[in-house]
Amino acid sequence: MLAKIYDRNPSESALRRVVDVLERDGLIIYPTDSVYAFGCSIRSPRALEHLRRIREKAEGEFAVVFENLAQVAEYCRVDNAVFRVLKRNLPGPFTFILTASSRVPDKALARRQTIGVRIPSNAVARSIVAALGAPLLTASVREDDEQEYMIDPELIHERYGREVALVIDGGMGDIVPTTVVDLTGDEPEILREGRGLLQ
To answer: Considering the chain, what is the average pLDDT of its residues?
Structure first.
């Protein structure tokens, strides 16, 4: 199914449909402030396994989308220095590597102790998390050879519509991924240059 949800004032009824899918262990594709992404509820081990199969990801290689910094602090260890970096740069096109707390399910972590933290500036992504009441496990939609299948929601639906329960059309996406920053050491370390310029 393809559903249009706008970044400005996302419709409550449309968000409710998305939440229904996620609460039934469904997988979605949704817009972010960088590339389109797969998403499932952090509380759904079945959806996580489905996501792993589609993305052929090794265990523990997913990021987590949060609504706000308060929710990040529930699932990660955030000291004052880390909080200041997050506050300056989020919401925005960053993935920050943080040490996970015990609230992150073992299945999401596998043998790792860290997770990638996202708070996109796209209101659709944050509104989904707010309506669900739980973070989203996420992985970007990547088509190495055909970029249009990463940015055009209708083509994304054509490619993945049988594998996911819902594709959200939030307009044309981007091909530039997030900037990945490791905050687990003494100083922030940029692991991948992307859309975000670290403040």
So the answer is: 91
